[in-house]
Amino acid sequence: MVSQSPDIKITTEAPVRAPSSVPVDDAVLAFEVGALDLRGRLTRLGPALDEILHKHDYPPAVGKLLGEAIVLTTLLGSSVKFEGRFILQTRTEGPVSLLIVDFQAPDRLRAYARYDAAQLKPGQTSGELLGKGHLAMTIDQGSNTSRYQGLV
Hints:
Shape: globular
Number of helices: 3
Number of strands: 7
Structural class: alpha+beta
Strand content: 25-35%
Radius of gyration: 21 Å
Strand order of the largest sheet: 5-4-3-6-7
Distance between the termini: 61 Å
Helix content: 10-25%
Order of helices and strands: EEHHEEEHEE
């Protein structure tokens, strides 16, 4: 038998919430949990991601890799505190030799992947699809400032 304190109320009813004023798809939402000193971003891409991936008819593995890069770029680009562009680019020796994602705040998104279909094999990981190469992240705040680029 479980004893219950008069200060504790147990309910089995699910909370009812009003519809969100933010669209469900193609959104990046910042959040904060003060009690845990936790901040982050949540992204959900639907039509924007679908449009990019279907326009080029990528094989599933390439589409997944490009989709991951799009989500990463959107999260990083939306965290920058200005209106400008955040560009992620890879040049590698793997089957996906070029990958570019261009996010312009607040809502412009473009992406492209160049791949060699003959080098694609079932079950390749993201690392195997890219292989050895370079990753560049560029921040462009507009014509009045210099671009910043990090290269790995």
